[in-house]
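I am still getting used to backbone structure tokens and would like to learn alongside you. Label the sequence line and the structure token line clearly, so we can match residues to local backbone shapes. Go ahead whenever you are ready, and we will take it from there:
>
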Amino acid sequence: MLRAHVQHTGLCSLQSRQACKRRQQNAAGRSRRGTCIRADYVASSHDSLVLQKPIKQALQPKEVRSVFGFDRDMRQGYNIGKVLGAGSFGVVRSVTNKANKRKYACKTIPKVPKRGDCTPRYLLKIQQEVDAMEQLGVSLDAVYLKDVFEDDENVHLVMELCLGGGILDAYNCGGASYTEKRIASIIRSVLRFVAQCHAKGFIYRDIKPDNFLLLTADPTSPIRATDFGLSIRHWPGEEPLKSRSGTPVFMAPEVIMQDYSHEADVWSVGVLMYHMLTGRFPFWDSVSNLSLQQVWQAILVRQVDLDSPQAKQQLSEGARDLLSGLLRRNPADRLTAGAALAHAWVQEDGIAEDTPLNGSVVQRLQRYGTYGHLKQMVLKMIMEDVVQQGTAVAETVKHIRELFERLDTDKSGGIDMHEFTDGLKQQGYQLSAEEIEQIMDRIDINADGAIVFDELAASLLDWKSLQQDRLWTQWVDLAFNKFDANGDGFLSLEEILHHLPPEMDGASAQDRILEARRMLREADANGDGRISKDEFVALLQEASMRDSLDQYDSRYSGARAEVTVGQ
């Protein structure tokens, strides 16, 4: 248990974070769909001033006392417990929420690293880790980020506490033996998570057993991805990344060659799968006595032999077929995470095809929850216009209304936590109270403790089909123009501040600016501190292209729901 949470700090016995010379990029960059953009962490004009200083400039402690705008007083809401682990990237402690009495893990990251100077790049890396966790942590395949705090010296990430250790801990320490069927379910969860990262424009860059934890001590427990410290925002079509990041034995050939993109994560999944099935690595029985150069040379030169007698003895035909697609040396020939999820070996004990809603309610809620706050707000705005203007989704809205009325048992006009929990269970979904709470936290946009109809409808509507409607461009234009008060064709920080949801009315000026900056970062692909019309459109269209429902855990156990809303 303790060993697993040390990994929240980014430690690994095999890990060697080699410092490589990074190409300096123009901070303005180019559009998300362009051919060249920053290859590393670069500040945008809407970031705090300290982050906009030269990327490698050494900063003094007094300059970084307040950088991100996160809440300051963690002790007001949490009791601090014992240390679970410590390492070069910080300390992990057990904390208890004073309100709900639940225990969480708190990763404390120093603003001034133990080794080297504090630089804007180091701070931007922390900001990127928080952004990735906030967006992806609503998925049932990733650790949920409950709260973020900042004091003069540290950033504190309060997250879901995973009690089962890493995915190999029970296997290595308890004498247990995973079946191939169980390993397939673990790899399915890993692939779902990787597909979600790529759909949201992140490369994870550190796939290894220690970064995937069992939620509970039960060997069949759900899996959670953790430690987003090396994740980086990067969209397909952008210039390949250059910096070597990750654990050497899991690195793809193109990472070693410093010319890589999303495909590198898929190679790493292949290495993880091979290791779990055989107890070995693709090129070695053990790496304990190998130098870093020997490890890299083997990855670059040697071929993965899946047809040897030993491989055929240890690996089923289906496993070898999937591995052959994951471990292709040419990234262009490698399976995508989404394509790998469709492979028969991953699905052999997997999700039943006969799921409700042509993609379960829980899958839709997770996907919608991983959207940023700006995207959620805009989709809700568009949904209201769609419902008012015509019958394009009239039948779907009718079905969602029926589901809402079934869940709203006290007819209050809102679905509270108790109703949400009971309703999902009655519909045949299996989730813990904590998992339901984390989903509800992101769906309940107005933060009033209940899901109203508009919030449920926005999360369940078939947005892919709506984007094919002849009126879609008109709906998007209406939404954009509502924000663009001065009509200059761009959305500024001030215009986003003006349209923050009503629940932010009572927030402090600092909290409102923090929320507006987060929203701006969602769509400001070129970092110029404003959102163009093209960036606005790309924000809304992105999910329909890559973010399919089968990338999320359905948690459906067999009861039939009566609502169908498409894909």
